[in-house]
Amino acid sequence: MLMQADKSLNEYVVHDLLSQIRGITSRAMFGGYGIYKNGKIFAIIADGELYFKVGDSNKADYQKHDSKPFVYDAHGKQMEMSYWQLPQEIMDNKDKVAIWVEKSWPSRKRVRKGRKVVRVEIYQFHRIGKFENSVRIGMNETGAGFW
Questions:
Q1: Residue 84 three-state SS
Q2: Residue 65: exposed, middle, or buried by beta-carbon count in 10 A (0-12, 13-18, 19+)?
Q3: Which domains, from first to last, does the chain contain?
Q4: Measured between alpha carbons, how far is 15 from 10 in angstroms, rounded to an integer?
Q5: Rounded Cα distance, 125 and 144, in Å
Q6: Long-range contacts: 110-116, Cβ < 8 Å, 24+?
Q7: Sign of the torsion angle spanned by Cα atoms 117, 33, 40, 24
Q8: Is 138 helix (H, G, I), strand (E, B) or coil?
Q9: Residue 32 pairs with which residues in a beta bridge?
Q10: What is the C-alpha radius of gyration for the chain, rounded to an integer number of angstroms?
Q11: H-helix segments, 1-147
């Protein structure tokens, strides 16, 4: 069952805080919400808090603001996710929020395949009057890969 605080926060986030950003949607999940930009998740709402996706490129921003990661209990063990609470100072400024969304939105996806990390990049190109997706896969920095 979704908490009323999460429902209210979801409405505020999607229809006010992120309303100036195109492609924002949300879906109920695991008692909270997932927030998506163009179909890719970049934030979650859980326990009445908004958390953005964090990686190597933006983790220091969250640490600088004394933000905390989302932690849940799994069979008595505390599990930390790669989503950190969006600082109130950032939430209070829609222009800053838009910048942090871009830093959290996964423009490329890393996939583990055996011991090698495969980068998958989606490119759109124009072909015979309509747009189609093509996927370029490259293996690490070796340059090996294929189209």
A1: strand
A2: middle
A3: 4-104 (3.30.1460.30), 109-146 (no CATH)
A4: 8
A5: 22
A6: 116/140
A7: negative
A8: strand
A9: 29
A10: 18
A11: 4-12, 59-64, 88-91, 94-104
Count of positions (residues) in the chain: 147
Distance CA 82, CA 43 (A): 10
For 75, residues 6+ apart whose C-beta sits below 8 A from its C-beta are none
CA 37, CA 69: separation in Å to the nearest integer?
21
- Mean pLDDT of successive 10-residue stretches along the chain, which has 147 residues: 74 94 93 93 94 93 96 91 95 94 71 48 36 42 43
**CA dihedral sign, ordered 36, 39, 42, 46:** positive
Give the global pTM.
0.70
Closest CA to 35 of 60, 7, 13, 63: 13
pLDDT for the residue 137: 44
Beta strands in the chain (DSSP E): 24-29, 32-37, 40-46, 49-53, 69-74, 77-85, 109-113, 116-127, 130-139, 145-146
φ and ψ at residue 10, rounded to 5 degrees: -60, -45
